[in-house]
Amino acid sequence: MPNNKELKNKYDAIIVGSGGTGLTAALQARELGLNVVILEKNGKTGGNTSRASSGMNASESLVQLDEGIIDNNRDFYEETLKGGGLLNDRAMLKYFVNHSAIAISWLMKYGVRLTDLTITGGMSVKRAHRPGSMEPVGFYLTSRLTNQVKKAGVDIFTGAKVTKLLQDKNGNVNGVEVETDKGVKTIKAKAVLLATGGFGASKEIIKKYRPDLVDYKTTNQPGATGDGIKLAKEIGAQLMQMNFIQVHPTADTDNPHVYLIGEGLRGEGAILVNKAGKRFVNELNTRKIVSSAITGLNEDGAYLVFDSGVRAHFAAVEFYDHIGLVKEGSTLADLAKEIDVDPKNLAATVDEWNKAVENHKDKEFGRTTGMDRELNRGPYYAIHIHPAIHYTMGGIHINTETQVLDTNGNVIKGLYAAGEVSGGLHGNNRIGGNSVAETVIFGRQAGIQMAKYAREHK
From CA 444, how far away is CA 418, in angstroms rounded? Predict the structure, then answer.
């Protein structure tokens, strides 16, 4: 994306980062009349959000009601709290849940239509909203929002790395220093939002907080190096829960590029088997539990097994197949041979699973969700998976208004943070589908709060 425009010296709001959070905040702030610029260090927009594949969680949405699903915010709150080991920031979680359905409706206004539903681990009903085409939610969301942001007249500069936050004599943030191919430039603004994502690709930060995970591969894009966290820390922002790093149970790590195999695949009915061809866990338990179960096998990962019926309901499989991650067998016996597991065991496992689906009762592992269809339509498929670093729950301490707090718990005026760069919402384990929701819900909140602040400081 060539930056034909000139960077101005002054804007109402500067947004650092162009993933789901930055794009949403820009659109919301622009809607409220602010002159906004997005600064993105990578060569294109989308950040880590563009890699998200399962969906965007929301409760009490109109889409759920259209599908006859009666959900309530209280359950969404309680299940997310339980999933996070009761370590979530309760006020943030309450705001998140209560603003989830409106976020889905707000996106519709901009042609981002998440009208299909699936389920993710730790949830009791279908809350993960995704495009009707069932394509991966992240790229669908960020590509459409990028177009809408440009249409709304927001300047986006790629290859623009923010190196410093500027403050006035009272300590209020009032601009940034940014490096582009034209050199270093100072830009002033009434408000600055850090929407820079997490640190899942930073060996340096991971080594500091979680040396036990330093050798794990990561599903993150290479730019997820914790830049916003460093910028905020330099001016005295408080960091929280930095040791809470999520390992995603199902990633293909056999290639130089690590590919996340979306949780929605299990949500649509895939099962996990070990080398013996047997199930070993409730596949839709929380990510923490499923990852530990796979690691505990000590067998070089595990296999996701599914059939043509499941494949038809999870479009990302076409991409996984296209890049060579999917093994295929016209029968289960063929598939067992292909992935070198015991054919008798695999047949018995699938048979047992199909009975569990039919009776809505998984006696073996107590799975209650992602049981909409039996695995009985050939050809059959398998993907070899390992756990990989996926998400960093900790980050900058913010309040429900996305204002950044310093180490004494005071607001650093003019500075906002939202999305994965912030900490607290997810506790010690993030529920699948909650990160895309966080980018939109708190991205909108950041846009609203920056507009409010700019109006007060004319």
Answer: 9
